[in-house]
Amino acid sequence: MACVVLKNIGTIVSGDIQSPIIKGDAISVADGLIKEIGFLSNMKIEEDCNVIDCGRMTVTPGLIDSHCHVTFGDYAPRQQQVGFLDSEVHGGVTTFISAGEVHLAGRPKDPAGTKALAILASKAFNNFRPGGAKVMGGALILEKGLTRQDFEEMAREGVRVVGEIGLGSVKDPADAAPMVKWAKDLGMTVMMHTGGTSIPGSSTVTADQVMKTGPHIASHINGGPTAVAFEEVRQLVKETDLALEIVHCGNPKVAVDTAELCANEGALDRVIIGNDAPSGTGVIPLGILRVINHLASLTTVKPEEAICMATGNTARIYQLNRGIIAPGKEADLVIMDAPMGSVGEDALSAISAGDVPAVAMVLVDGRVVVGKSRNTPPAKGQAVLSC
């Protein structure tokens, strides 16, 4: 049995926004799954376990980027950059969710081609973990002519996501809504572009169009990169139960206003966080951490709540067995701290102050994939692995 114990933890952030902090100073992991959370003094530890001394730092679930435009491999054609996913793992991200392989050069736009692309990308990323991270690839881009039988085939072959509606030729709710129903019937999670145009061929999407189409997620509600009017944001918050995605490559003012509105409406459990990159805005390895900082330092959202938006909230929407620190969940974990020089005493107080926390170690399925981040500032503390 592969066993690892994280001990001497200062704070455990659960990923569950209803109860974001767990009392305890230790987490035990067996065969890639979380076994126990609590106090080390109450745990029975196997002699052959590896031990990580967390140095009183904060442990969180691995962050989930809810909006990433992957293609194939760890390459971003739009920015011609290699290794962008691996680099984001150094920002604490352990899961990437494709919003559609839209930047693939020569992307097919006929039914057979878009179906084949979704199946191939899904299967390819099942076999490829860039930087150790998990990628939910193969987000179907809706094109005219797709049939229910096509959706059934894709579901059988492992396609689990419909990429943001509005990037393909299916834009009108009258065309999209039947496909959304097929996808939902087959257990797929559906996202929809919200706001102004992003790439050639995409379209402006209003709140009314989103509501008539009926996806699970209003993608980049703060714009990708251009936001809808705030009255439309208010409509989506108050008149729907959709998941509401806030992204780095969007409108920062609308991000703040949306988070504050959701806090006031008791809707923080519906907020998820993504990068929406690679895009014209670029590649942002620390984008998820920066959105967490942005919301927790400029609104009434607590830092532990913002972390839950980027972990447990997203995992629940996409039906993932991770994003929460609980027994039986996949042991994707981040050890983080206040960076050197920060006014914060720990990761959470540094985030409240607007400082990017220092990533000291990243684990995927209980295995260390980052020993020290090359992208965040160095931590005040130190995580030490003993074998």
Task: Give a short synopsis of this structure.
The chain is an alpha/beta fold.
CATH H-level homologous superfamily name of the largest domain: Metal-dependent hydrolases
Q: Helical percent range?
A: 25-40%
Main-sheet strand order equals 3-2-7-18-19-20
Mean pLDDT: 96
Q: Can you tell me the overall shape?
A: globular
Could you name the key traits of this structure?
387 residues, alpha/beta, Urease, subunit C, domain 1, TIM Barrel, 2 domains, six-stranded mixed beta sheet, five-stranded mixed beta sheet, 11 helices
Plain-language structure description:
- The two termini are 14 Å apart.
- The protein contains 11 helices and 21 strands.
- The chain has 387 residues and is α/β, with parallel strands linked by helices.
- The chain folds into 2 domains: 3-61 and 325-386, Urease, subunit C, domain 1 (Roll); 63-317, TIM Barrel (Alpha-Beta Barrel), CATH 3.20.20.140.
- The strands form 5 sheets. Strands 3-2-7-18-19-20 form a 6-stranded mixed sheet. A 5-stranded mixed sheet has the order 5-4-1-6-21, with no helix packed on it. Strands 13-14-15-16-17 form a 5-stranded parallel sheet.
- Strand 15 (217-218), helix 6 (230-239) and strand 16 form a beta-alpha-beta unit.
- The protein is globular, with a radius of gyration of 20 Å.
- Helix 4 packs across helix 5, helix 6 packs parallel to helix 7 and helix 8 crosses helix 9 (303-309).
- 27% of the residues lie in helices and 22% in strands.
- 57% of the residues are buried.
